[in-house]
Amino acid sequence: MLTLVMVYWGTKEQREADSCMLQYLTEQLNGLLSEQGIITDIVLRSERSLVEETETREITLTFMEEEMEGKPVATIHLFLMPDEESCEVEVEIEWSGALSDEAKLHIWEQAKVVVPEIALHEKKRFLEQEYAVEQSIVLDYHFLVELPATESEEAIQEWNGLLDRFSQDLGKLIRLHA
Known about the structure:
single chain, 178 residues, alpha+beta, six-stranded antiparallel beta sheet, globular
């Protein structure tokens, strides 16, 4: 299990709000995903617009079943929403290498059983016409997570249930085979 250390710049109020939502969500996911595979990286990104004087923060977790060449890699992006009480969770699971059209559709069909709204897209990189030097498919989906409005047992169970279901679903997705 990784130990999470975050360094924040900005006002005290920004740090406290971000720390509350992003850090708590990351800690919860770190524990739950560690039961499904391994988190290989956690990155905090902070971007400040010079035009609009806004700042966005994102945490990216990289997750795999096991650290081995050829295994799917999941990237989980946590974006703090403007209300500072919720995060958008965006998930991308990438399979590198050339796959047949049948294999791509088979993976996608299996994934849609786990997460019905999941999308599939392909990435190819060409250095010469008709010759792809890199190929991959990416399954992606997203959802919104809100901090429990109250500290009631029911609200906390709902929060924990959502995160547990997410980690179990992601564990299934990274184990899909063509």
